[in-house]
Amino acid sequence: MSSAAITKKTYVAVYAALMILVLVTVGVAYLDLGLLNVVAAMTIAFFKAILVALYFMHVRTSSRLVWVVAGAGVYWLVILLALTMSDFLTRAWITIPTF
Amino acid sequence: MTAAVEPKDNYLTAGFSLKSWLTTTDHKRIGVLYLLSITFFFLVGGLAAVLFRLELLTPPGDLVSADSYNKLFTLHGIVMVFLFLIPSVPAAFGNFLVPLMIGAKDLAFPKLNLASWYVFVLGGLFALWALLTGGVDTGWTFYTPYSSTYSNTYVSLMAIGIFIAGFSSIFTGLNFIVTIHKMRAPGLTWFRLPLFIWAHYATSLIIVLGTPVLAVAILLVGVERLFGIGIFNPAIGGDPLLFQHLFWFYSHPAVYIMILPSMGVVSEIVACFSRKRIFGYKFVAIASLAIAVYGFLVWGHHMFVSSQSVYAGLIFSFLSFFVAVPSAVKVFNWTATLYKGSIAFDTPMLYAFGFIGLFTIGGLTGLFLATLGLDVHVHDTYFVIAHFHYIMVGGAIMGYLGALHFWWPKMTGRMYTEGWSKFSALIIFIGFNLTFFPQFILGYLGMPRRYHAYSPEFQVYNVLSTAGASILGAGYVIPIIYLLWSLFRGKPAGPNPWGAKGLEWEKTSSPPPVHNFAEIPTVTEEAYNYSGTNEQG
Amino acid sequence: MTETSAHQEDMSWQRETSLLGVWVFLLTEVLFFGGLFTGYAVYRSGYPDIFSEASRHLNVLLGTVNTAVLLTSSLTMAFAVASAQEGKRRPLLIYLFLTIALGLVFLGIKSTEYHHKFVEKLIPGAHFSYSGLSTREVQLFFSFYFVMTGLHALHMIAGIGVLAVLAFLVWRKKLDPSRNALVEGTGLYWHFVDVVWIFLFPLFYLIGLRA
């Protein structure tokens, strides 16, 4: 739990990595990768979020309980997204004609 | 046994002024504040039920207009679900008992606890305001696009009230989770915890994970109504069904928010009055968590006929059957606990029996509704109404009344009248079944819900139902009278009138002192060690 | 204080308890924004081209700058937490001030963006006007844009408020930040709000860029 384990040097390194990832994600967005655009953007965002959580939020040096809480957030988010999308992706959209 | 005396210094005598109650951070007093507030809301919701049951006595809509009828059942649903059932056992008894049961002085965040009560009252006042200015007619489900675009009633005001009340629920859940993790007495390991605590832990998990999604769904309805920023509006390509997904992501697990704490109560009562450790303790404990986790995977069974994709319907139907497993584990284990137990039929035990039987009927008819084909037939009929009242009234309220009768001596230090309390338990059981069993038949015959008039062939069942409701109503009034009476005339209860196991009974007085225990107890044995042996596992 | 309850008064126990409370609170926040992200995902999958088209009305440069500003504020916040734990008052005050300043810069840039949208009549509702392929569904994109970035901004405003109160208390020596978890807990919240933006940025600003 001692967060002193993370030094200011590490913070700066993480910050630098985050800034580089911002530029990468903007750069990738200009390429036409089809469906992979979304995948790339979300993967990069996910990595950035992991970096922030592990280092800035000290998850890396926190108790197992904190890992469980953070994991629970991700898990339930996936349930909400996946089961909702299971409906919308397997049926036609009801569109109302313009009046 | 020596004559019981009431301790002079307890949490009730620590201050008599209104201020001492309104500024308290004592979890026991906050529990009492909640108990009073939810009783008030229970009466409000009950009054609405009286009115529409009277309307349904005769086939034509003669007592109230269609509009008033819509507002009445909406009022009944919103008040009973959000302002009575959700806070009922957790906020009143959970607040009172969680620290006592785990040997702590208070919850982890006492000020947050007080804040949660104020937030609850504020949300309740908004809801009452919406009701008094003209009411809401959307049903408690606030389905879009009716709620967001068409209804001319006070939906926004009500939405604000529900949104606010949600925070109070979140504060309580957060407090319980942290308290149970961090404040257990020395020696009180996870598998020595009373099942009441396991149930409240699981409930808190659902509250913390589900409530924010309801909040955002309600917020989006409010934003659409107030600012015209449409998310669910089909006229700009929105899909109203998205609201139902977000709504039921919370509101299906919310059923477990209502039933899990009552299951915890039943575990305590069954163990005490059969003088046995709960059979398969670990299974019952884990089943609570399983219900909490699994409960989030089944919400789509509310949407089988609302144009949800059939493939999603299949998945949700399939998953819904599985959630019956942990519930069944609990029912079987309670029953197995009774086997060869020395059973005493005190009032709390009567409610526990009521719970087990009625919950089983409610749960099994839930499987009917989770079956895709059958649901098409009974969807939006009185069958659904009967089903969820068997869960919410037959289950949750039986558990609530069981808790009230079991821990009343602990909370007040007084005993109530045995004869009257057994009589009213019986009345409630009979009244309940007479009210809701005919509704299963009505629903199966095809009477739709939410109409103020119906065709004459349904009348006989409706008369039975209304007659039952009046008996049920009387059953609810009797406890209010004898419990109030016991405050003044009841015999002192002594620390442990039931001879029950548990820190709240064995290590502190009735009513408990302000700081709960003279010294923080150390736990050396399993929960429900009624046989006196210290078996492990 | 009896021996047995001594552990409950222990400082590191207090800190862990408060931080667990903050983490559980953040869990509710994940699901709160999660509901909105779900809504976004549903409509984005329903109208992918329209969302891309609508996205081109956002200013990528401003969005990128704002992302950088917010990430920098997270760095200063992390430094503030480190200073608080070491009991260094002056650096703590400086870092808190920097974090607040960067937060205000973010909100400033955000409000100019909102102003542009107002001028271009892209705020959904009665005054919405758009001339393009699909005037109807474009409103959905902007509904999500305003609701999600708006709620994010509200969270920033709340965070800045808490930071200001903390800074004031430290400045008037009413609070010894090394003795409690207030700064650390606020830091967790601040970083979380940053994480939300990390996802909002590509979902709103970057989806219309590809040729």
Core attributes:
heterotrimer, B: 537 residues, mainly alpha, Cytochrome C Oxidase, Chain A, 17 helices, 67% helix, C: 211 residues, Four Helix Bundle (Hemerythrin (Met), subunit A), 7 helices, 0% strand, disordered N terminus
What this model shows, in words?
The complex is a heterotrimer of chains A (99), B (537) and C (211). Chain A has helices spanning 8-30, 36-56, 64-88. Chain A has two domains: 1-61; 63-92. In chain A, α1 runs antiparallel to α2. The longest helix of chain A has 25 residues, at 64-88. Chain A is flat, with a radius of gyration of 19 Å. Chain A is built from three helices and no strands. Chain A is 70% helix and 0% strand. The mean pLDDT of chain A is 89. By secondary structure, chain A is mostly helical. Chain B has 537 residues and is an all-alpha fold. Chain B has a single domain (18-506), classed as Cytochrome C Oxidase, Chain A (Up-down Bundle), CATH 1.20.210. Chain B contains 17 helices and no strands. In chain B, α3 (66-102) packs antiparallel against α4. The longest helix of chain B is centred in the first third of the chain and has 37 residues, at 66-102. Chain B is globular. Chain C is mostly helical. Chain C has one domain (24-205): Cytochrome c oxidase, subunit III, four-helix bundle (Four Helix Bundle (Hemerythrin (Met), subunit A), Up-down Bundle), CATH 1.20.120.80. Chain C contains seven helices and no strands. Chain C has helices at residues 6-9, 11-46, 48-55, 60-86, 89-119, 135-171, 182-205. Chain C starts with 5 loop residues before the first helix and ends in a 6-residue tail after the last helix. Classes of the chains: A mainly alpha (99), B mainly alpha (537), C mainly alpha (211). Chains in contact: A-B, A-C, B-C. At the A-C interface, α1, α2 and α3 of A face α2, α4 and α7 of C.
Order of helices and strands of chain A: HHH
**Portion of residues within helices of chain C:** over 70%
Shape of chain C: elongated
Distance between the first and last residues' Cα of chain C: 70 Å
Give the full name of the CATH homologous superfamily of chain C.
Cytochrome c oxidase, subunit III, four-helix bundle
Treating each run of at least 4 consecutive H or I residues as one helix, how many helices of chain A?
Answer: 3
Range of helix content of chain A: 55-70%
Low-pLDDT stretches of chain C are 1-6
The geometry of chain A reads as flat
Quaternary structure type: heterotrimer
Given this structure, which CATH class of chain C is correct? Mainly Alpha
- CATH topological fold name of chain C: Four Helix Bundle (Hemerythrin (Met), subunit A)
How much strand content do the residues of chain A show? under 5%
Number of helical regions of chain C: 7
Let me know the number of strands of chain A.
0
- Ranges of chain A where pLDDT stays below 50 over 5 or more residues in a row are none
